[in-house]
Amino acid sequence: MATHRAARTGTSKAAETAPQRESLESQRESLDPRAELSEFLRTRRDRLKPADVGLTDYSRRRRVPGLRREELAQLAGVSAAYYTRFEQGNARNVSREVVDAVSRVLRLSEAEHAHLLQLAQPKRRAERTVEPPRQQVRPEMRDLLAAVEGVPAYVWGRRSDVLAWNQTASAVFGDWAARAPRDRNWARVAFLDPASRTLFTDWDSKARDVVGRLRLWAGLYPDDAELASLVGELSMKSAEFRTLWAAHDVKQQTHGPMRLTHPLVGELTLRYETLALQGDEDQYLSTYHAAPGSPSEEALRLLASWGADAARKRSTDASS
Fold first, then answer.
1. If you average pLDDT over each of 28-42, 182-196, 207-221, which comes out highest?
2. Which of the listed ranges 56-60, 85-89, 126-130, 295-299 does the model predict with the highest average pLDDT?
């Protein structure tokens, strides 16, 4: 099976163009909490029309694509001046009631509402560790991954880093062990590894999910230097990432369908489940399964067997 390795497309500092350097700096700056809050609210306003929220628009031409600030303020029950300060990150002690009201008017999803709460409450941000500690997977969790061989499963954490996996997950998604540690990251895989565009039948959906997760991390850990570096790297190397990042969409999808086109077994139709690991901060377990009796279930069995054989061969080669 072809290994889905991350593309080696690094750009040296000397080779960076001026626009690339400007893009990198702008994306690093975008992790600033005030900028995050401002752009998130602006993009949420832009996607709504007056008619969407029960307002009548009598003007033939509008200077803004979506709701005006004063329209949103009116519907949320706050003054236009106060909302403007809020959106610009200049309002202090914003209450939960105001955040809830603005979320209601903007029709935010549950994940978007939680994201806005993180961005709007500087005290909660200030209480966080500036640099989150490096993540470690408990030995018991690694034992669990090995115990469920036959089911593709892996543990992932902040910034969508893949932290631990079983052999079947490697057989399905590519050999994680063959990647450099920094490249065991779903964002780098999705945007820098050309093989991912073939593997994920709906690559666009996978890309949106990955970027939506990164946006959530940016709200939770605005001072995470590794996240800022990752965003800067992807912004330089991928125009598609830049476009999705600028949209400020957030997602926290925990289950659903996934279709793959695998180089060995062809089409796979799976469902995934993602569970937060209690007691292991910002760690998640993702598993994939096929419908009982389906061709995809049989294909998974073949991949599990292939993965086990490949693991035994690597072990034999290492000991010889």
1. 182-196
2. 295-299
Number of domains in the chain: 2
Asked if residue 9 lies in contact with residue 237, where contact means CB atoms within 8 angstroms, the answer is yes
CA distance 89 to 58: 31
DSSP letter for each residue of 206-255: HHHHHHHHHHHHHHH-TT-HHHHHHHHHHHHH-HHHHHHHHTT------E
160 and 294 both lie in a single domain: yes
Residue 108 shares a structural domain with residue 192? no
CA triple 201-207-212, angle to 5 deg:
140
Q: Are residues 89 and 190 in the same domain?
A: no
Closest CA to 87 of 53, 116, 48: 116
Indicate the pairing of strand 153-156 with strand 284-289: antiparallel
Block residue for tokens 């991954």: 145
The reply to whether 117 and 147 lie within a common domain is: no
Q: Which domain holds residue 202?
A: 139-319
Q: What letters, b where the CB count within 10 A reaches 16 and e where it falls short, cover 55-65?
A: eeeeeeeeeee
**Bridge partners of 165?**
154
Is residue 7 in some structural domain?
no
Residue 239 corresponds to which tokens in the numbers above? Answer: 């125009």
* Same domain assignment for residues 87 and 150: no
- CATH, residue 71: 1.10.260.40
pLDDT of 91: 83
Q: Give the span between the Cα atoms of 303 and 270, in whole angstroms.
A: 14
pLDDT in tens, 259-282: 999 999 999 999 999 999 988 889
Flag whether 8 is in a domain.
no
Tens-place pLDDT, residues 104-130: 999 999 999 999 998 987 655 555 555
**Token digits for 59?**
């003007």
Residue 2 lies in a domain: no
Distance, in Å, from the CA atom of 124 to the CA atom of 128, rounded to the nearest integer, reads 7
